[in-house]
Amino acid sequence: MHDIAGEAVQFIDLNTMNILFLFVVGFIGGLVSGFIGSGGAFVLTPGMMSLGVVGTVAVASNMCHKFPKAMVGAYKRFKYGQVDIKLGLVIAASAGLGVWVGIKIQEMILAAWGQAGSNLYVSLSFVVILVVVGGYVFYDAYKTQKTGGEEKVSSLALWLQKIELWPMMTFKTANIRISMWFTLPIGFATGMLAATIAVGGFIGVPGMIYVLGASGLVASATELVVAFVMGFFGTIKWAMHGMVDIRLTLIILAGSLIGVQLGAIGTTYVKEHMIKVVMGTIMIIVAVSRALAVPQYLKELGFISMSPTTLNILSKASFVIMCLALAVGSFIILGAMWKAKRAESAAKKAADYSLAEESYG
Amino acid sequence: MKDQKNKTNEVVENEAGMVPFSMSQAAADGRSSQVKRKILVVGKEHAFTPGVIDYAVSLAQRLGYDLVGMNLKPALEQPGKFFSPYNQHLRAKFTKQAREAWEKTKTGLQQQGIRGEHVVRFNDVAKAVKDLNQRVKRIDFVIADVGINSEEITGEIPLPVFSISGYEGEQVMAQEQERSSSRLVGKTIALGLGSVAIYAAVFWNSGSVMQYFTKGGWFAALPVATVFLVSFVHGAFASNLWSCLGIEATKKVQPRVAPRPAARKRPRPQLRLNA
Q: Of A177, A191, A221, A292, which is most buried, counting CB atoms within 10 Å of its CB?
């Protein structure tokens, strides 16, 4: 991400297919975001670029949609009592520093290795982080499901909470009392990841769960606050360079504002560990998608050689699988909501029926 | 004697608008000092549905119970720390309307020798009933007015809750639901139109919009302000849209205590227990 000051930026022409694509992807991205606290951005930016949008405009327009969507989602989940505002703001503060450092690193790599090197760095970060963290989140969700669905605070978090290191902070909604110092790396990593792959939540949410000890519900809801703050300031920076294509932003927003509400509602229907299931699933699928893009950059840097046809196939497969990640995530969410709603109305019917059978003597 | 005194002391609170039993009233009646059993009627409008309150009154008379009427408006609950004068104004308005409506009911009650109390609250149904049950003793069961749906009656409430079905009741129920859902649909459509208007304004003038919005510098405020505006209008539209479609957050209903059937089944109207 570097400034293109002085260059004329081309903005694409919109046709029906573009608009439909952005609306649908926006909706699904919003749905996932409302549910797990982050996501959608990593599909939208490459998605826009595949429509011909210049990279920086894609990032800027995406960010400009991200913070209002996060705001709406955070507000709705706040009404459900799931958001810990204080925790969100504390994490967002250190995330700002992480973003700055992340951008600096990107610029250094760009200068030293060129665009291909930068892309390789981004893709490798994707793969490593998503496989490690996503795998662990998924495994944890699987474990919770096997032991009957009761979420337990991780032993790491319990141990860290016991350490009395001034200043200690108490977070009421998240039900955590922990030293401020332990929140810093979470926020920093979130910011760095956001600057690198545009989704900070993939570290932020697991970090809040496993390091700080928040529940999946509170962590994913609070992440929306972090996303709002980061998105807001990031957008201002990009908008001041005239990089925001408001048309793209508004189309995506049209879909995502509807989707994010549904995702937020969904969290009240399903068992808490479902959030981890969805998150882990998406992260692993995206990791696969990014891994398929790595050979392209290795070839460009001259590390390996590969035929152009293979590369073409890989790059198409990579994009498709990435969209698949979002689609799978949204199916899981909608499926879980559907099941929960049916169980609820079935239970109600059973209760009504059994009462009707009772005879009042 | 002690019971009544405690009740009077507990009850003084400006928000609740409770009309306490006074000692002189009890003495004048010549009744015993023992507290009578009560029926609680709960509704979410400022006035109870006529069919429901009439049934409750006749039931109270037959059983020899007293009546407590509670009008709720959970929408005016203020969970946050921000003081809103507008919210205070709405609360005062609701309380006034509720009291006026109750005055009419009270005349009917007095004619039949039933004592009535009136409460106004701004909590959700479960919390309000639970709290009231702790302050006012001997409430035996609750009759829920038509505006209250079964999801609001959670396991927190330690009393049996009945709603009225049967030809008259259902007619009233259908009317009420239609009215509130048509209001919701109206709001959704209005917000949808507002959203469409904003989008139309941007896209029909996309040329000049793009020119100004990408100028950079202070013009950055333009896209930012636009998305905030869209978030409020379109966001509210989206939220109402899901509500219209019946997709709302759920309160997970816990298994309830076995209810004590306190009323007989009658051909019409009937009391139906909410599970």
A: A221
Is A183 within a domain? yes
The number of distinct structural domains making up chain A is 1
Domain span including residue B185:
178-244
Inter-chain CB proximity A360 and B265 less than 8 Å: yes
Instruction: Name the residue with higher pLDDT: B11 or A252.
Output: A252
Which amino acid is it at A64? Answer: C
Q: What interface predicted TM-score (ipTM) does this complex get?
A: 0.78
Query: Is residue B100 located within the same domain as residue B207?
Result: no
Closest residue, chain A, to B211 (C-alpha): A242
Find the domain containing A159 and state its range.
18-340
Q: What is the pLDDT of residues A217-267, one digit of tens each?
A: 899 899 999 999 988 888 888 888 888 889 999 999 999 999 999 988 888
Q: How far away is chain A from the Cα of B227, in angstroms, using its nearest Cα?
A: 7
The shortest CB-CB distance from A348 to any of B216, B224, B275 is to: B275
Contact A72 B228 (CB under 8 A): no
Task: Answer whether A65 touches B (CB < 8 Å).
Answer: yes
* SS3 annotation, chain A: CCCCCCCCCCCCCCCHHHHHHHHHHHHHHHHHHHHHCCCCHHHHHHHHHHCCCCHHHHHHHHHHHHHHHHHHHHHHHHHCCCCCHHHHHHHHHHHHHHHHHHHHHHHHHHHHHHHHHHHHHHHHHHHHHHHHHHHHHHHHHHHHHHCCCCCCCCHHHHHHHHCCCCCEEEECCCCEEEEHHHHHHHHHHHHHHHHHHCCCHHHHHHHHHHHHCCCHHHHHHHHHHHHHHHHHHHHHHHHHCCCCCHHHHHHHHHHHHHHHHHHHHHHHHCCCHHHHHHHHHHHHHHHHHHHHHHHHHHHHCCCCCCCHHHHHHHHHHHHHHHHHHHHHHHHHHHHHHHHHHHHHHHHHHHHHHHHHHCCCC
Q: What is the pTM of this model?
A: 0.64
Q: Decide if A352 is inside a domain.
A: no
Co-location of B148 and B192 in the same domain = no
Residues B106 and B25 in one domain: yes
Q: What is the pLDDT of residues B155-186, one digit of tens each?
A: 778 888 888 765 454 555 555 556 667 888 88
